[in-house]
Amino acid sequence: QICLSLVKLLFYLAHSPLGSIVLLDFQPRQFVMVDGNLKVTDMDDASTEELSCKEDDDCTLDFPTKSFPLKCSMVGKCEGMNEKKNLFNAYRYFFTYLLPHSAPPALRPLLANILNATGDLRYGVNETLRAFEKVLHLYKSGLYLQKRPLVLKDYISLKGFRMVEGEDYKCWPSYSHLGCLLSVHSAEEAAAICNSQLQCQSFIITQHTTWTGRPLASFRSSWTDLIPDTNAVVYIKRSASSEKRL
Fold it and tell me: Has 25 been annotated as catalytic?
């Protein structure tokens, strides 16, 4: 969410009515999340000036660990320098820390490609935004789950009950520090996640959703602490339920 929101902001800065805007003091402390959108808190160090040049050698974009040769345009300006400077700063201050974590395994190669492409400045901000929107579409639609074996059949569904809330085993990246609470596309994906965790014996799809609209699923190491709830369904591993009669 943070990275996508940042790229949308950089897209606007690259195509603003004032021209391409560069953030000269690009630091995480200069941004804040407001209603799920990343915003710049200080525009005092923003500039629309593109570096003047006479030849391509005048247009080297330097960072502490990398340098990038750019082109000198016909009008004597370093082509795309403001956009590329913003994008590489997004890569080194945000993408490298946030993109490698938390995504479903099927989407990690796509995020790794974004990471590598922005780190080498092979992508401009337009291509980066398109790549993020593709990942978001796959994530929200559940298309990344295609060609996976169906495992929900290995679970018994118990309607009209939910599990008592309380501390249980932890998992990464959980939305709760008390247990294992993850976003899922469906009960089928939740069943696959439960199968991948040795402690998991049951799960419930909660009424809570993430910013993408995906529901949160609570995974538990037991299924015995049940209370009535007409709107809930508990999914229990058949292997677990065979040990004790429902």
Answer: yes
Check whether residue 113 and residue 80 sit in a common domain: yes
The pLDDT tens digits of the residues spanning 216-246 come to: 999 999 887 888 888 889 999 988 665 554 4
- Kindly state whether residues 172 and 132 are assigned to the same domain: no
Q: Do 180 and 199 fall into the same domain?
A: yes
Q: Is the separation of the CB atoms in 140 and 212 below 8 Å?
A: yes
17 plus 65 within the same structural domain: yes
Within a domain: residue 242? no
Question: What is the C-alpha separation between 162 and 174, in angstroms, rounded?
Answer: 19
Which residue out of 25, 42, 56, 225 is catalytically annotated?
A: 25
**Residue 243 belongs to some domain of the structure:** no
